[in-house]
Amino acid sequence: MAHGAEAGGHVAPVLGAVLGAGVIYVAGWRALSRRTPQRFGPRRLAAFLGGLGTIVLAVGSPLDALAGRLLQAHMTQHMLLMMVAPPLLWLGAPVAPMLLGVPSRIRRAVAAGLAAPSLRRITSLIAHPAVGWTSFAVAFWVWHTPWFYELALRSDAWHHVEHACFFTTAMLFWRPVILAWPARSRWPRWTMIPYLLLADLQNTVLAAILTLSDRVIYPAYAVRLGTIAALEDQSVAGVIMWVPGSLVFLVAAVWVAVEILAPPGRTTLPAPLVEGEHLAGSHPGMR
Q: Which terminal residue of the chain, N or C, has fewer Cβ atoms less than 10 Å from its own Cβ?
């Protein structure tokens, strides 16, 4: 199994990146919370740090070593990286705090890069809800096929590629659902309800296969645990995917429905902040 002691060297960069992101976000959030406390209150900070903490729990805790022996632990990792961390990070509205948290020279360089027509076309494509949903579903099914799943179990490097695919595509998937400021909706808001329900449907299909199958789908666990114990472990893993996974999708769909039905609110921000002048060092390309 690739999980365990030999994975420690690959976990350190992830933890370093999480720590760096946290420091940058907090620095930017402190500035924004003084200027626009109604938009960047403590709940934003708690959500973003909670998302980072979820990543640490998934890949930097004993859960990672346990995932090499138990499918239910590995499935818990996947749920944390796909269903919990990404929406929490987006709820932190990270774009503005992350930009304000870096030195002005870097901020201006980022603004100039984002203003470039070629990059704007690429980011516009990547941020499209259809791309987010499709990439999420493809990564979900491809990495849970026996061949790719066993590859990730055998190879520490492929294991991290698997997790990177899950996390990246989940960030794309959850972006139009949370629609963190200053994002704009590409589709009518109501479309996020079938968007979420269809994602739940494909999650339920795989969960049912794992829960109800009478054979071990991933042979590596049978070698480790024996066939009977591996089948029980597989069923528990399916339930973890089925119940908590479906609950996340359904709660998000209800949240969107409530948001649609709620009376329109009024949000007032200083004009320069809305236009991104302070965020981008007065660069006209930032919006």
A: C
